[in-house]
């Protein structure tokens, strides 16, 4: 953890914590007791997914307005503004084995296996659109910087760029 991006110190995360994200003034992690949040990265409030009944794994993203989580068992997507009460939302067709990534106002659903599609949402997960025609690969993430989105995979020669985050050109 770092407060200035230069000096880092070790802090204990919740037990069995998955990747930690930052959003809405909190650090977020999925632990064995559910979604956990922390203001300072030292003290964690666990079990924030009490209204969700299935395993969430690391399938969550903060969009600036909503905490969006994915139920790995049913494929359903849920949203919350208070981090406690979650309501069902739109479900992309490729989410059952996938995960969520938020980049510059677009929420993406990527599979954990080779695919020729990704899904995206421009309204924090309420509705989803599927992008097709991609080269078959296991896509690992979407990043935004310098006015461009980059979709990258675990295959060294399969990467895409986009100026709008929805239409992709191989690079």
> How many distinct beta strands?
15
- The average pLDDT is 76
Shape: globular
Strand order of the largest sheet: 4-5-6-7
Label the structural class. Answer: mainly beta
Portion in beta strands? 35-45%
Q: What is the makeup of the main sheet?
A: 4 strands, antiparallel
Unreliable sequence segments? none
Radius of gyration: 16 Å
Distance from N terminus to C terminus (CA atoms, Å) equals 34 Å
Number of helices: 0
Series of H and E elements:
EEEEEEEEEEEEEEE
Helix amount: under 10%
Word description of this protein:
This protein is mostly beta strands and 171 residues long. The chain contains no helices and 15 strands. The strands form four sheets. It has a four-stranded antiparallel β-sheet with strand order 4-5-6-7, with no helix packed on it. Strands 8-9-10-11 form a four-stranded antiparallel β-sheet, with no helix packed on it. It is globular. The protein starts with 20 loop residues before the first strand and ends with a strand. The model has no long low-confidence stretch (mean pLDDT 76).
What are the key terms here?
171 residues, mainly beta, four-stranded antiparallel β-sheet, 15 strands, globular
Quick structural summary:
By secondary structure, this protein is mainly β.
Topology, pairings included?
Layout: E1 21-23, E2 26-31, E3 34-38, E4 60-62, E5 67-70, E6 77-80, E7 87-88, E8 98-103, E9 106-111, E10 118-121, E11 129-131, E12 139-145, E13 148-153, E14 159-162, E15 169-170
Antiparallel strand pairs: 1-2, 2-3, 4-5, 5-6, 6-7, 8-9, 9-10, 10-11, 12-13, 13-14, 14-15
């Amino acid at each position: 953890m770092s407060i200035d991006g230069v000096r880092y110190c070790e802090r204990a995360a919740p037990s069995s914590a998955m990747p930690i994200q930052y959003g809405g003034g909190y650090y977020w992690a999925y632990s064995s007791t559910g979604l956990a949040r922390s203001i300072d990265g030292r003290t964690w409030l666990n079990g924030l997914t009490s209204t969700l009944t299935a395993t969430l794994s690391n399938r969550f993203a903060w969009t600036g307005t909503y905490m969006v989580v994915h139920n790995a068992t049913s494929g359903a997507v849920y949203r919350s503004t208070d981090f406690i009460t979650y309501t069902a939302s739109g479900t992309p067709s490729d989410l059952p084995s996938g995960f969520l990534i938020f980049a510059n106002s677009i929420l993406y659903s990527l599979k954990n296996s080779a695919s020729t599609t990704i899904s995206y949402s421009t309204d924090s997960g309420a509705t989803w659109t599927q992008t097709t025609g991609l080269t078959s690969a296991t896509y690992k993430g979407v990043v935004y910087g310098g006015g461009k989105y980059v979709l990258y995979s675990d295959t060294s020669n399969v990467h895409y760029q986009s100026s709008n985050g929805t239409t992709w050109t191989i690079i």
